[in-house]
Amino acid sequence: MTFATAADPSAGPSAPSGHHRLLSASGPSGTALSLADHRRTYPAPPTPRRPREDLIATVERAGLLGRGGAGFPTGRKLRAVAAGRRRPVVVVNGTEGEPVSGKDALLLRTAPHLVLDGAALAAAAIGARAVVIGVDRLNRAALAAVDRALAERRDSDPDGVPMRLAPTPPHYVTGEESALVHWINGGEAKPTRVPPRPFEKGVDGRPTLVDNVETLAHLAQILRFGSDWFRQRGTPAEPGTILATVSGAVARPGVYEVSAGFPLADLLAGAGTPDGVSAVLVGGYFGFWLDARAAASARLSHDDLRRRGGGLGCGAVAVLPGRCLRPHRDRPGDGLAGRRDRRPVRPLRPRPGRPGRDSR
Ligand SMILES: Cc1cc2nc3c(=O)[nH]c(=O)nc-3n(C[C@H](O)[C@H](O)[C@H](O)COP(=O)(O)O)c2cc1C
């Protein structure tokens, strides 16, 4: 087994070919695979001393866009960090402060080795020798899963890139990259003035790659199965699958893996909407409301949703039932028609401990 190189071999025989890609990397009934079982599909990442141009080029060819919200091209960010003068650092952003998102927690809990492989491969690509994994300190299950996974890796691969877990303050802004870096550096978890941005000057003043958990899980699969395999799903501009967290007035709330560009109506049909749909909040706090008519034709892509005035964000989808008050503004905090006060809309939380069908 080899990781894809500049030659970028096509998908190997063990590449996930069915509906699930990321969600195929967990064990039975959504438990985390042991490192030994994980390694049957995913070989140990290399630990080179210098940046690996071939790895960066493969990620660029795959066209991976960051899954933390902004959809920034991951290959471009790898290249920018690798170009810094000092040895860089990788930060895994697993803070997931968005109230209606649960995909990163799910990956950390059920496929921690895939995420950690992604971090190790990103480190190999840019020549980093340190990885910090930021996880919300209230998310005990994810912290425990990552902690266990790190212990397994230390035992089996003592020469691997050093990784440490950093339980983070449970605030929405902690996940903003400059806030996360500031906190890791011993400051408050609040955004700092930029520039310099973390990719220039981040953890310990070093160039720092901050990437979302899901982004790094995709990166691990791209460097295992190739950019052509990754591009078999999604659209040419937004390749691959995305994890969508569906909550609110649905029969089966949870995390669903679908191709980027998937029709929102089909996702909602899969999740079941017995009470009908009056509006859908897409992208969480940074997202926007779609009324039922717009939701019927929208697609889960940055392109489509930007054209409608919003964005895909972190892929969170929260459904208001039919015959509910209709949102009259396009941002979640702006209030609802018929409300007398101006308090922000209470977020719809996915039911804890009830991952959706596709999340296993
Ligand atoms: C207020 C705010 C909160 C954010 N919260 C998160 C978060 O919880 N998780 C995350 O991955 N990115 C979050 N981001 C985006 C990060 O700043 C950063 O863009 C992201 O971690 C980069 O990873 P990616 O390129 O893999 O998407 C947030 C941004 C803002 C402005």
Structure, described:
- The protein is α/β, with parallel strands linked by helices and 360 residues long.
- It contains twelve helices and nine strands.
- The strands form two sheets. Strands 6-5-9-7-8 form a five-stranded mixed beta sheet. Strands 3-2-1-4 form a four-stranded parallel beta sheet, sandwiched between helices.
- Helix 2 crosses helix 5.
- The longest helix is centred in the middle third of the chain and has 17 residues.
- The two termini are 27 Å apart.
- The protein binds flavin mononucleotide.
- The site of flavin mononucleotide has 20 residues, from strand 4.
- Flavin mononucleotide (FMN) binds next to strand 4.
List key phrases describing it:
alpha/beta; disordered C terminus; disordered N terminus; 4-stranded parallel sheet; binds flavin mononucleotide; 360 residues; 2 domains; 14% strand; Ubiquitin-like (UB roll); Rossmann fold
Q: What distance separates the N and C termini? A: 27 Å
Beta fraction: 5-15%
The count of domains is 2
Could you tell me the mean pLDDT? Answer: 88
The fold-level CATH name of the largest domain is Rossmann fold
By secondary-structure content and strand pairing, the structural class works out as alpha/beta
Which overall shape is indicated by the principal axes computed on the Cα atoms? globular
Tell me what the CATH architecture of the largest domain is. 3-Layer(aba) Sandwich
| Parts with pLDDT < 50 across at least 5 consecutive residues | 1-10, 329-360
Using DSSP, what is the number of strands? 9
Proportion of helical residues: 25-40%
Reported for the largest beta sheet, the result is: 5 strands, mixed
Give the strand order of the largest sheet, numbering strands 1, 2, ... along the chain. 6-5-9-7-8
SSE succession: HHHEHHEHEHEHHEEHEEHHE
Number of helices: 12
CATH top level label of the largest domain: Alpha Beta
Bound molecules: flavin mononucleotide
CATH superfamily of the largest domain: NADH-ubiquinone oxidoreductase 51kDa subunit
